[in-house]
């Protein structure tokens, strides 16, 4: 489910009113739902932790246990920065032999966040979003590029609601490690997408295109451009 799925994105009062602690009743009900349906759920919500509020993403496994909770590191200027505190660490989990990474919307505009997870062995990035009009480049080009350059799947779940400056464009999709679209949704409304993550195809692609493995990032991540 997309960014801030449990409270909505565009109304600040609703975000504040519907912020939830990790141990709240709503999240316990979602855990029961995951357990009853024997499915893993990943969704966006406004997390309340003491006096702090985070734009967060939680994953609950088929046994109803929280397997990861990620707090958005890169907050969109202005609106989000007035509502939330930024997170300070990555999160992920393993399921059925695959390693899943996590990102929220604006995080995807920072290639190094995705690459760091790829270098740690990520197979599929779960990215929830509230991408709005004027940013069609994100689902159409940025999502495939991040998958291609890191040799991983990306499941991109975007909101398809809202109005005015908060009108989201939908276009949720699942993209393969070659950057190709495996499944996609139209521009608006609520949809369910499904795809099979193919372990053998993923391994074969990575053998042929070992970019993360060949990365020599230690030689430039801490370097500076020469001074004039």
Automatic annotation (TrEMBL):
MF annotations from Gene Ontology: hydrolase activity
Record carries keyword Hydrolase: yes
Keyword Cell cycle among record annotations: no
Short name of one Pfam family: CN_hydrolase
Residue ranges of every copy of the CN hydrolase domain listed in the record: 1-199
Keywords in alphabetical order: Hydrolase
InterPro entries, sorted: C-N_Hydrolase (IPR003010), C-N_Hydrolase_sf (IPR036526), UPF0012_CS (IPR001110)
Protein family according to the UniProt entry: Belongs to the carbon-nitrogen hydrolase superfamily. NIT1/NIT2 family.
The protein's name in its UniProt record: Putative hydrolase
Annotated organism of origin: Sodalis praecaptivus
Lineage summary: Bacteria, Pseudomonadati, Pseudomonadota, Gammaproteobacteria, Enterobacterales
